[in-house]
Amino acid sequence: MRKNQATLTDAEKQDFVEAVLALKRRGRYDRFVRTHQEFVMSDTDDGPRVAHRGPSFLPWHRRFLLDFEEELRGIDDAVELPYWDWTVDQDPEAAPWTEDFLGGTGRAADGQVTTGPFARGGGRWRISVRVDSRDFLRRSLGAGGVRLPTRAELDSVLALSTYDQSPWHSRADGFRNQLEGWRGVDLHNRIHQWVDGHMATGASPNDPVFWLHHCFIDKLWADWQRLHPGSGYLPRRPTRDVVSLEEPMRPWGDVTPADMLDHTRFYAYDTDEEEGEGAGVETETGAEGDPGA
């Protein structure tokens, strides 16, 4: 059961933090940072796009989250990923930015995070996969006047009935692209900008809030599937430069978007309704809206 981070007990928060720190000590955490950075750099509107800017943004990150969660559970089998509902918890001085969980914003001079378990001063969180010479975690919550999305903005995206559309990149219409944030009200991308620091770079998993943010993005995909059971992943057939329904996604080689449609095969969210389970399974009606791709 993946829970809202606002409902975690003190013990659950500590267990999550300790498991993340253990992965870092064992050298396995940075593998995820490298993988994400590599795909951010290689995914483009004018070429192959797997993890970003295309239809497989959501199934790719669902598999990425599962891999990370499996690593955490290898440390402590009671740990599961929590999600951060940024339409509700918007105070940069409250959860999840508390001393006992993710720590707070960075200092004004250089963005260095100096509080919480991921502060450089504690010696437990040194940045190895760098975007510059600095080896400390950086944040600047709400920098540049960026504001977090409202529930009304989120609902306007959840109301979209088509998963994705040609030309299948950052200028496409549809639910995926508006959730990712390249068009419309901008949801996913805006959170990276609001946190700023490492979250505003390809090496964004350096900040553990990455996992809570993407866990909420994943939940929103599940919510959308439940709201639109007659809609499905697009494109269904092979299409240049993007991953269609039955094609494998790099770097796994044997994982397709179709494999990732039903999250209830792996986990539930604390707000999942019983009648919604299995809503992510592709049906023939999922071809509606497919412009021949």
Describe the structure.
The chain has helices at residues 10-25, 29-42, 57-75, 151-158, 175-180, 188-195, 209-227. By secondary structure, the protein is mostly helical. The protein has one domain (5-90, 148-186, 204-287): Orthogonal Bundle (di-copper center containing domain from catechol oxidase). Helix 1 crosses helix 3 and helix 3 packs across helix 7 (209-227). The longest helix has 19 residues, at 57-75.
CATH class: Mainly Alpha
Distance between the termini: 36 Å
- Give the overall silhouette: globular
CATH superfamily: Di-copper center containing domain from catechol oxidase
Strand content: under 5%
Tally of discrete structural domains:
1
Label the CATH architecture: Orthogonal Bundle
**Number of strand elements:** 0
Q: And the CATH topology?
A: di-copper center containing domain from catechol oxidase
Class from helix and strand fractions: mainly alpha
Q: What are the low-pLDDT stretches, counting only 5+ consecutive residues below 50?
A: 274-293
Biggest β-sheet strands, sense, barrel: none
Q: What's the tally of helices?
A: 7
Q: What number is the mean pLDDT?
A: 92
Helix content: 25-40%
Order of helices and strands: HHHHHHH
Determine Rg (CA atoms, Å).
18 Å
Describe how the helices and strands are arranged.
Layout: H1 10-25, H2 29-42, H3 57-75, H4 151-158, H5 175-180, H6 188-195, H7 209-227
Feature tags:
single chain, 293 residues, mainly alpha, di-copper center containing domain from catechol oxidase, 7 helices, disordered C terminus
Quick structural overview:
This protein has 293 residues and is mainly α. The chain is built from seven helices and no strands.
